[in-house]
Amino acid sequence: MKHKLLASGSLAAALVVSAGAAQAQKPQYGGNLEVVTVSSTISALSWDPGDFAWKTNHDNLHFETLFAGNLDKSVRRGGKYNFKPDAWLAEEAMRGELAETWEWKQNPLRVEIKLRKGIMWPAKDGVMESREFVADDVVATFNRQVNSPKAFKDYYYYVDRVEAADKHSVTFFMKEYHADWDYRFGWGYYSAIYPQELVKAGIGNWKNAVGTGPFQLVDYVQGNSQAYAKNPVYWDKDKIDGVEYKLPFVDRVTYRIMRDETTQHTALRTGKIDILESISWTAVDSLKKSAPQLKWAKWLNYSGVFLSMRVDQKPFDDIRVRRALNLAVNQAEIAKEYYGGNAELFAYPQHPDYIGYFEPLEKMPDSIKELYTYNPEKAKKLLAEAGYPKGFSFKVQVCSCSPDNMELLPLVAGYLEQVGVKLEIQPLEYGAYLSAMTTGKHSAGYFMTNGHTNPTRTLHKSFTPGQLWGPSMWSTPEFTAKMNKAYATQNEGDRQAIIREMTREVIDQAPYIWLPIQYRYTAWWPWVKNYDGELRVGAVKPGPIYARIWIDQDLKKKMGF
């Protein structure tokens, strides 16, 4: 059941220089940063934020948002935030990006945002001349997003209107308070601000891409790579040792799309990539032996893994069946043996990083604890009570883009077969796989990795009506009412209590077979400076992180690369 460790590779004899022997004394400009990201196997699905395709945000280093994470609050700089969550920013860890200041006001309820002055859209042949970023850009972008036919239902329902008060001021007038206001339109997955010239030129064509961000998209090869060149008119700076430096430091960032993990590891060992953002525990020992100078960061995955069961179809409309399938799978054994102990049994839908929202398993009621206890005999009894004494079979769709899920699902199938339940596994390419769920045409079983997002959205997107990320189709009017109450609650302590109650409820209803969450690792070469494994400063938003990295060219050469 254990994974096999990858065979150890070998490094060139040149890799004998101590990683600390050639520390850069100050930032260096120039060089290329080669990255294999946390989503190393997936190409962009769309270049238009109005399509509400998740991969748009991840692949667009040229767009910026109103707010972003403040890297001055990072652990590396003496703060308490690791900047790894996929879409969670504590309020004190947030800064203005395109926004400079913001303030909530009453009568009418609104948030007034002052924009930074002097930020420029770079010139783009066939698209636009260089001009200043202004409030009208924010208004036009928001109106296009909210009116997109692909927009999530009720995603912006609480916003009455958005107006430009003057050239550098924009006001969001609210119908009511919404706890995720900053995430939804300020730094979330669909918050990118773009010029209307781009829309007119064809925003879906990557060749037209232009934005205020630190890098501009200059090349894209489907299934292979995408390259970003330094934005010469980028506005932001970073203060290092009391000295302020213009960003970005590197000339170019290239995302390498690699489906095969062995290929990723070889590229890292041989220095063809500088950062590998997501590494399975199975490869860590081998990489540490073959490339001992790599630097490392460990983090608990910010995505839940589960087998969703459609509660709008038989047999999963019966909670006894859903609970039975949870009891039939030995989650503790998966955590210990399959993941080699590099996993947490209980870490979804809330993530342990969500202080005040997350509750450990030992604090849960017995009915929830039972779901994480292997009991195949009781599983058979529940199935018999539900009218399935001989079990049943059902189809499960899984994305072929995920090697982990392709390997884990047969193991889950093996457990279920022991209680008479058989799976018909159907692998799909990412586009077809995602389309099946978002159109509601997916099979009774849907094996999925889904981001935690943040403490409220993790429940909202999967367990309230009309959401695109709800493969189980589970929701109730009572639960939805509690969700609305949580969003309308301004006091965070009160909101945390509501969310804790809701989390207990949905886990107990077992719309998923809940599975362990594994630890992942990030590795990078020591010539990558001003970096400590940070992954995101917003919803899968790495641009400001890459902009602050510089390459110690002398060290890299001394190490033989």
Using the alpha-carbon principal axes, give the shape: globular
> Helix- and strand-based class?
alpha+beta
Looking at the structure, the CATH topology of the largest domain is D-Maltodextrin-Binding Protein, domain 2
Count every beta strand, where a strand is a DSSP E run of 2 or more residues: 25
* CATH top level label of the largest domain: Alpha Beta
**What would CATH call the architecture of the largest domain?**
3-Layer(aba) Sandwich
Sequence stretches where pLDDT stays below 50 over 5 or more residues? 1-24
The average pLDDT score comes to: 93
Sheet of most strands: 8 strands, mixed
Number of helices: 17
Radius of gyration computed on alpha carbons: 24 Å
The CATH homologous superfamily of the largest domain is called Periplasmic binding protein-like II
Which percent band covers the strand fraction? 15-25%
- Distance between termini? 38 Å
Structure description:
By secondary structure, the protein is an alpha+beta fold. It has two domains: 32-294 and 525-558, D-Maltodextrin-Binding Protein, domain 2 (3-Layer(aba) Sandwich); 303-518, Dipeptide-binding Protein, domain 3, CATH 3.10.105.10. Helix content is 28%, strand content 22%. The protein contains 17 helices and 25 strands. The strands form seven sheets. Strands 1, 10, 11, 14, 15, 16, 18 and 23 form an eight-stranded mixed β-sheet that branches. β19 (392-399), α11 and β20 form a beta-alpha-beta unit. α7 (319-328) runs antiparallel to α10. The longest helix is centred in the last third of the chain and has 18 residues, at 492-509. The chain is globular, with a radius of gyration of 24 Å. Mean pLDDT is 93; it is low at 1-24.
